[in-house]
Amino acid sequence: MESNWKELLNRLGIAYSFTDAAHQYQPHTVSDETLLKMVNCLGFQLKSVNDSDKLLQKIENKRWQYAVEPIYVVRQQAIQFDIVVSQDDVAKAEIAVSCQGINIPVQYRQHVVAEKICGHTLYQRLEIIIESDLEPQYYDVEINCGQQSHQTTLAITPDLCYIPDVLAQRKLWGFAIQLYALTSARNWGVGDFSDLLSLVKLCAQKGGDVIGINPLNVLFHDYPENASPYSSISRLFLNPIYIDVEKVTGYQPAMLCGQEKILQTVRESKDIDYTSVYRLKISILRRIFDEFLPSSKSEMLKFKHFCAQQGTDLQDLAVYQAIYSFYCDKVYGGWRGWPKELQNPRSKAVADFAKVYQNEVTFFKYLQYLAAEQLEEVTKAVDKCGLKIGLYRDLPVGLCKDSVELWAGRDLFIKDCGAGAPPDVFFPKGQKWCLGAFNPFTLKASGYKPFIKILRAAMQGAGAVRIDHVMSLMRLYIIPDCADEGTYIYYNFDDMLGLVALESVLNKCMVVGESIGNVPEGFIEKINARGVYALSVLWAERWNGCGEFKSPCDFAKKAFCSVGTHDMAPLKMRWFGYDIETMYQLQMINAEERQNQYKGREDERCKLLHALDCACVWPQDKPRQGDCLYGEDYPNGIMEAVERYVSASCCDVYLMQLEDVFGVTELQNLPGTDRDKHPNWRRKLPVKIEDWLHNDDFNHALQALQR
Questions:
Q1: Residues 84-90, mean pLDDT to the nearest whole number
Q2: How far apart are CA 359 and CA 377, in angstroms?
Q3: 538, 563 contact by CB (below 8 A)
Q4: Residue 84, φ and ψ in degrees, nearest 5
Q5: Is the pTM of this model over 0.85?
Q6: DSSP of 565-621, one letter per residue?
Q7: Which residues pair with 228 in a beta bridge?
Q8: What is the mean pLDDT of residues 258-280?
């Protein structure tokens, strides 16, 4: 019986044991209770482990119950798929292939790979091998078998993701920023698309070619303080907070009358006051929507065209936001707390609500129209300025469980569970992200359309995209909502990776995989073989995890590198160990762990100084004076030395983080905390973008990079 149970788990892609990525690499055996929950959360009905053999048999029989899979993801040099038909229909089977409505004649052959009697009929599973050359693309395939016809999709994938030719000639560099953190003399208390436009021009002026940005996805309209860009309500649309209101057609300065003090306050605040900023912007945008939009035929025409292009996805978002706003102060629990008839997006009740509140629904669409229009202006500037990569966007691994994606397609997600991570070097206690995660079985049944959509949305206007927690293409650590213990759920890795490569080529967009954490053996080699770039950070580039720092020539070539990430302490903060003290004060670590981490940081400082000395990267006008190994001071010239050290690596692309340059001593995000403990996602950069070129630290960092 135990063998049947384990065979079932293997068939479903549920790990019954795993090894974490903490310092001791501890093995974990998952309890049967948790495993049984996982089986049912994936949509399979199993009351007891003792019934494993019955479910196994049911799964074994399933492939004989339909003719074709909804999609076949295949390599360009091995175009083949299977079809199940009765023995009588085998000789009648004819294949027709088309692409975007154009018929494509193909040569193919077929042979029987299996047989099974179902009822009184003998069925055969045929393997169809297409011998004609077909370019990477999506193809519609129709199989006619006498009186029956079956349709499927062939996704023919390239060997490699898109890589621009320039990287074969030289390295590129640019900036890694959190857009909301940008400060300027003109923005309204949060970085916006006009600030991003200014940064594109500055980057080009200084010879940069890439700008890495945080996820720009739409968040909760009614709860602006829920500010994590990695917990959006939809990965298909943009956050309206990034709209530059003064740039919107129809804006008049008089519209701000009476709110000047609010604007001044949010501009001068140390951290971002999301509620005040968002409400101020929305109040003005609503006036433009009410007073100007109906009177402008040209603007209304463009707006309607945008809505038609976005179709059902935009309609779902806008209706969801309208219902959410209506009920947010009446019920608890998000859309699951709405009246039952409104929990079904295709119900008559939802359609009736959308009609009654049509103006509100249209306003939410209008916000998306404005955000898309301003981001498009940024991407046009990228092309005009000649940035070789341009925007380097970020695709989150999951999204808020109280989101429009789950409301509109809940069967696509693993129910009553959330994504997280087991213990690793950076997060010894693991992480419970509580993010909605795709169900691998229903995702495949949908032809991967939701996954393809979010890939395209992230690649829109981008020259590169960072896939957050790229290991999720293979497996994702899933934790039941009512528990702390979780396990890994495996995805159709070849399919997922193939679709990433295909969308990369079709959109001319590089792919970078964030792989910090528990990385399966051989995983990096597999994604690298498909042209997925690595993400390299200084603090992880150490031999055996905590040994000497690797020399710049030992970094991986096909990688985007930086000193750290948004989840790590900036250089100056890390040097002094303020992040350790922050975690101790928040009771995230005890006194013993605090002391151990301080000792580890002392060792890290010693090894970092040694690496910088060996690489001879100290600025000539700031030779190193003393060690400061106990964090008693910040070594003169260390910022320039570190910038020069990392930018001199073998990596194809280097990203400069402004928090390191400007000596920020606060964390942008402290994983494992919410805003009640730490002001995550609220830190503003201390230097306005207009002043960067006049800032000594900024210019010294540029000089170090250029050397």
A1: 87
A2: 27
A3: yes
A4: -105, 120
A5: yes
A6: -TTS--HHHHHHTHHHHHHHHTTSS-HHHHHHHHHHHHHHHHHHHHHHHHHT-S-TT
A7: none
A8: 97
